[in-house]
Amino acid sequence: MSLEKVTIPKLIQMKQDGEKITMLTAYDYPFARILDGAGVDILLVGDSVGSVVAGYDTTLPVTIDEMIYHTKMVTRAAQRALVVIDMPFMSYQVSVEDAVRNAGRMIKESGAEAVKLEGGQNQFDAIKAITRMDIPVMGHIGLTPQSVHAMGGYKVQGKADAARQKVMDDALAVQEAGAFSVVLEGIPLSLAQEITEKLSIPTIGIGAGIHCDGQVLVIHDLVGLFDKKRPKFVKQYVNLWDVITKAVQDYCREVKEGDFPTDAHSFH
């Protein structure tokens, strides 16, 4: 694992060199320390915090203040990884002026190095205006969770010919607007391959197949700390829910039976 700091130019070079990019979500100091130390290239402080940490059914209730709060923890921990902060629902949709002001505030107060926002052609002006302020923007197209109600649920996008073309047009728009990278979520792998080959900026896939320049998962899904249904695209590498449950059960049993604390855990 290289100890070199991950930067925007570094990510572009990784695409050119055919080196895969790793991205995971992080919402607090301990997880960020672990992921950064393990070699993850990008730490995304996602608005998914609303679902996996706060317990909301969607990401829509998450606020700018909450995103800044969680990102501050992550930026204190990260030394190598690039830190990206999600712009939550209603922080950029109302006007370009709002988008620029909120992006600037989020970067200034959180310490993140880039923002991420959802949308393609419909957010062209916002992405362009934010990048003009020299704030790096990561795009997000395909299945966009903030549009869950308009999409009628969390459904794969880009299946039919017209829908496929729309996702492609969105990808090209995001690149033209100045984004340094784009997340492709919930689209057919063949479409993700076409987009990845056509774009000069890195594509990060989540439920978009193997051909993307990189991959992202929600850390709570990866380590088994989310108790709701996992999407098809998630691979769970360990089940920490069961590991932690057993540890807490052992603690409760030892306290009740008088086996903890022992003399070794006491002061004299």
What is the fold's blueprint, element by element?
Layout: H1 8-17, E1 21-25, H2 29-38, E2 42-45, H3 49-52, H4 64-77, E3 82-86, H5 96-110, E4 114-116, H6 124-132, E5 137-142, H7 148-151, H8 161-177, E6 181-185, H9 189-198, E7 203-206, E8 214-217, H10 219-222, H11 240-257
Helix pairs in contact: 2-4, 4-5, 5-6, 6-8, 8-9
Unreliable stretches (pLDDT < 50, length at least 5) are none
H/E topology pattern: HEHEHHEHEHEHHEHEEHH
The radius of gyration over CA amounts to 20 Å
User: In the CATH hierarchy, what is the class of the largest domain?
Assistant: Alpha Beta
Overview of the molecule:
- The chain has about 270 residues and is α/β, with parallel strands linked by helices.
- The chain has two domains: about 10-235, TIM Barrel; about 240-268, no CATH class.
- About 45% of the residues lie in helices and about 15% in strands.
- It has helices at about 10-15, 30-40, 50, 65-75, 95-110, 125-130, 150, 160-175, 190-200, 220, 240-255; strands at about 20-25, 40-45, 80-85, 115, 135-140, 180-185, 205, 215.
- The protein has an eight-stranded parallel β-barrel with strand order 1-2-3-4-5-6-7-8, surrounded by seven helices.
- Helix 2 (about 30-40) packs across helix 4, helix 4 packs parallel to helix 5 (about 95-110) and helix 8 (about 160-175) runs parallel beside helix 9 (about 190-200).
- The chain starts with 7 loop residues before the first helix and ends in an 11-residue tail after the last helix.
- The model has no long low-confidence stretch (mean pLDDT about 95).
